[in-house]
C-alpha cells in the first residue's frame, strides 16, 4: 500500500523543471502525478512515476538532488466530503499529514498523502473501508 | 600643518634608526625572557636577543603568523603577567577561536599616542567633534579612535556602528566635524543623507578618517564629492595595536607608518625574502614598544610598497602605499575579516550538509554583502520544505554567531560544472575596488 514517490530539490531557476521532464521522457518513464511545493528560493518537485528507482538514477546522473519518499494514496468518489472524511479519520488518531495533493480521473479522485505514520494511516483508513491503492494500480488508471 | 609629535614624526633618519635599534633589542629581550614560544623558536634557530645588533639583523628571525596566535590562544603569547593587562580585544576567528590581543596600561598610552598622531595628521584638533561610527567592543576600531580623539582634546561622540537614522540626527544636532568609520559605511551615510533630503549645508563635516577595509582612489573621490569632506585613509590591525599603525597626512600620498613603534619590512610572500626598497610585497611588522603582546615579524598578508624620504607635510616617517591587495584569501566584509576556511569549518561541523559551497561577495547600495550558496545533500534531503528552511536558518545562525556578521544563505542544487573541473572556485568577489 506504500507508494514510492520521487522528490527532487529544485532551485527557482528557469528551465529546471523542463530538464527533469526531458530526462524522464528520454528514459520512457511515465509521470502519473506531479506537484510542486515552493518557497521564494527553492522548490520540491514530487512525482509518482512508473519506475521510481530508474527515475532516481536518471536524475542523479544529471546531478539533481533526489530522494524516494513513501506516501499513501486512496481513491474516493469525486466529492469533497470523502476527502474530508479520510482526513478526519487520520486527525482523530493524531496522525498528521505533512502534505497532500489530489487529482481526479473521471468520476474518481486519487488523493496522495504523506503522513507522520504511514503504516498506522493505512490501517485506520482500511478499518474505515476507504479504498487504498497500490502503486501497480496507479498506472492502470 | 599640525603635527602631534614632531620630535618623533619628523626625526632625522639616523636618529630614528638608532632608536629603532635600541627598541628592537629591548623587544627581543622581552620576548626571549617572557614568552616561551619565542624563546623556543629563537633557540631552535640558534638565536638570542644579542643576535640583533642592527635592524637588518631582524631578517634572521622567524616570522609570526595569525596561526601562531591561534595556536597560543588565548594568552600564551602575552609577555607580561595577566595582572599587568588592562584591556583585551579580539577579532573573529575560526570556529569560535578569535585572535586575542592584550594591552598593558603603557600600551594603551602608546595606542592613544599613535591615534592622536593619526587624527592630527588628518587635520583634526581640539575644536573638532569626532563622530566615531566604528563599532565599539572587541573590535579595536571604535575604542582606538575614541582614545586618540580624547588625547587631542576633541569632543568624541561614541555613536558606534549601525542605526543610520540616529547617526544622521546626531551629526546634525551635535555638529560632527570629523567622521570615523569604514569607507563603505561613509558612502552608505552619504546616500542616506541624500535620501533623507538633509541639506548638506546644515552639516559641519570637513574630514573623514576611514579604514579597516580596502578602498580605492575612485571610492575616495566618490566619498569626497558626496560628503564634501577630505577623506583620509588610516591603517591598522589589532595584532599590531589596532588603528594607528599608519595614516595619511593631508597630502593624501601614502600612509605614514609610526615606525618608532612598529618596524616595517616588505617581503616576497613566496620566498619570504626581504625585498629592496620600493618593491611591492607583503607588509611585515615587528612591534618595538609593545609590552602586552609584542610580535616579531608579524605577517600582515597586506600587499603594499614603502617610500622613504621626507614628505611635503614635514614628516620623515616612511610611507606605505594604499594596500594593493592580500597575499591570502581573506575577505573583508563591512570591516570584518574572514577566511573561506572559517566558513568551511563551520559547515563541516554540521552533519546535515557537505562543505560544497560558494561565497559571493558583492557591494549593493554601497554596503558589502556576503552570500553563501550551499548544496543540498542527498542524504539529508527528505522532501519537506520546513526541514530545508530550518536547515537554512541553522546555517545562517551558526555563521552569524561565530563570524559576527550576517551572511545570506541560499540552498542550491549540486553544481555539475564545478565538480568536473576539479577544484571549484570557492569565492567570487564582485566588488569593484
Strand content of chain B: 15-25%
By DSSP, the count of extended strands of chain B is 21
Mean pLDDT of chain A: 91
Q: Structural class, judged by helices and strands of chain A? A: alpha+beta
- How far apart the termini of chain B lie comes to 30 Å
- CATH homology-level superfamily of the largest domain in chain A: VC0802-like
Largest sheet of chain A: 7 strands, antiparallel
Rg of chain A, Cα atoms, Å: 16 Å
- In CATH's first tier, which class of the largest domain in chain A applies? Alpha Beta
Percent helix range of chain A: 25-40%
CATH topology of the largest domain in chain A: VC0802-like
Multimeric status of the protein = heterodimer
Low-confidence regions of chain B:
419-423
Would you give an account of this structure?
Helices cover 34% and strands 40% of the residues of chain A. Chain A has 141 residues and is an alpha+beta fold. Chain A folds into two domains: 3-69, VC0802-like; 71-138, VC0802-like (2-Layer Sandwich), CATH 3.30.2130.10. The longest helix of chain A is centred in the middle third of the chain and has 13 residues, at 80-92. The model of chain A has no long low-confidence stretch (mean pLDDT 91). Chain B has 433 residues and is α/β, with parallel strands linked by helices. Chain B folds into two domains: 6-328, Rossmann fold (3-Layer(aba) Sandwich); 333-429, GMP Synthetase, Chain A, domain 3 (2-Layer Sandwich). Helices cover 32% and strands 24% of the residues of chain B. The longest helix of chain B has 22 residues, at 13-34. Chain A binds chain B through residues 5, 7, 9-11, 16, 37, 39, 41-42, 44, 46, 60, 62-67, 69, 98-99, 114, and chain B through 375-378, 381-385, 388-389, 410-416, 419.
Amino acid at each position: 500500500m506504500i507508494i514510492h514517490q520521487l522528490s527532487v530539490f529544485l532551485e527557482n531557476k528557469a528551465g529546471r523543471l523542463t530538464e527533469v521532464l526531458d530526462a524522464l521522457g528520454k528514459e520512457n518513464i511515465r509521470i502519473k502525478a506531479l506537484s510542486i511545493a515552493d518557497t521564494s528560493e527553492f522548490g520540491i518537485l514530487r512525482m509518482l512515476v512508473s519506475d521510481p528507482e530508474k527515475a532516481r538514477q536518471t536524475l542523479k546522473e544529471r546531478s539533481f538532488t533526489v530522494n524516494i519518499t513513501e506516501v499513501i494514496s486512496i481513491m474516493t468518489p469525486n466529492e469533497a466530503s470523502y476527502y474530508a472524511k479520510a482526513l478526519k479519520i487520520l486527525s482523530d488518531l493524531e496522525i498528521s499529514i505533512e502534505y497532500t495533493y489530489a487529482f481526479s480521473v473521471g468520476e474518481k479522485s486519487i488523493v496522495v498523502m504523506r503522513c507522520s505514520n504511514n503504516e498506522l494511516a493505512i490501517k485506520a483508513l482500511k478499518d474505515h473501508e476507504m479504498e487504498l491503492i497500490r502503486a501497480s494500480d496507479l498506472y492502470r488508471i | 600643518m599640525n603635527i602631534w609629535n614632531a620630535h618623533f614624526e619628523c626625526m632625522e633618519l639616523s636618529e630614528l634608526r638608532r632608536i629603532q635599534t635600541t627598541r628592537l633589542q629591548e623587544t627581543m629581550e622581552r620576548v626571549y625572557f617572557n614568552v616561551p614560544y619565542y624563546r623556543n623558536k629563537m633557540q631552535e634557530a640558534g638565536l638570542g636577543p644579542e643576535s640583533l645588533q642592527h635592524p637588518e639583523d631582524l631578517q634572521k628571525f622567524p616570522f609570526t603568523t595569525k596561526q601562531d596566535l591561534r595556536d597560543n590562544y588565548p594568552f600564551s603569547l602575552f609577555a607580561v603577567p595577566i595582572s599587568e593587562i588592562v584591556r583585551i580585544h579580539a577579532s573573529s576567528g575560526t570556529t569560535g577561536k578569535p585572535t586575542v590581543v592584550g594591552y598593558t596600561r603603557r600600551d594603551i598610552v602608546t595606542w592613544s599616542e599613535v591615534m592622536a598622531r593619526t587624527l592630527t595628521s588628518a587635520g583634526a584638533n581640539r575644536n573638532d567633534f569626532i563622530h566615531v561610527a566604528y563599532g565599539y567592543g572587541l573590535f579595536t576600531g571604535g575604542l582606538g579612535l575614541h582614545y586618540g580623539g580624547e588625547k587631542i582634546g576633541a569632543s568624541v561622540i561614541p555613536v558606534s556602528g549601525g542605526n543610520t537614522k540616529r547617526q544622521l540626527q546626531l551629526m546634525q544636532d551635535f555638529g560632527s566635524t570629523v567622521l570615523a568609520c569604514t569607507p563603505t559605511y561613509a558612502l552608505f551615510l552619504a546616500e542616506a543623507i541624500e535620501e533623507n533630503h538633509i541639506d548638506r549645508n546644515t552639516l559641519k563635516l570637513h574630514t573623514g578618517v576611514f579604514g579597516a577595509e580596502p578602498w580605492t582612489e575612485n571610492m575616495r573621490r566618490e566619498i569626497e564629492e558626496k560628503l564634501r569632506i577630505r577623506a583620509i585613509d588610516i591603517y591598522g590591525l589589532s595584532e599590531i595595536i589596532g588603528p594607528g599603525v599608519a595614516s595619511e597626512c593631508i597630502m593624501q600620498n601614502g600612509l605614514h607608518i609610526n615606525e618608532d613603534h612598529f618596524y616595517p619590512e616588505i617581503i616576497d610572500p613566496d620566498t619570504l625574502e626581504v625585498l629592496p626598497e620600493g618593491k611591492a610585497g607583503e607588509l611585515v611588522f615587528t612591534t618595538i614598544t609593545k609590552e602586552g603582546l609584542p610580535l616579531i615579524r608579524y605577517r600582515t598578508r597586506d600587499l603594499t610598497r614603502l617610500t622613504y624620504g621626507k614628505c611635503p607635510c614635514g614628516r620623515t616617517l616612511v610611507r606605505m602605499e594604499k594596500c594593493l591587495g592580500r597575499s591570502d584569501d581573506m575577505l573583508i566584509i563591512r570591516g570584518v575579516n574572514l577566511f573561506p576556511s572559517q566558513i568551511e569549518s563551520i559547515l563541516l561541523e554540521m552533519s546535515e550538509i557537505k562543505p560544497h559551497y560558494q561565497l559571493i561577495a558583492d557591494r549593493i547600495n554601497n554596503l558589502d554583502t556576503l552570500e553563501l550558496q550551499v548544496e543540498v545533500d542527498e542524504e539529508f534531503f527528505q522532501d519537506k520544505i520546513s526541514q530545508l528552511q530550518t536547515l537554512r536558518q541553522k546555517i545562517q545562525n551558526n555563521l552569524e554567531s561565530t563570524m559576527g556578521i550576517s551572511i545570506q544563505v541560499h540552498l542550491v542544487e549540486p553544481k555539475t560544472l564545478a565538480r568536473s573541473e576539479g577544484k571549484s572556485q570557492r569565492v567570487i568577489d564582485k566588488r569593484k575596488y
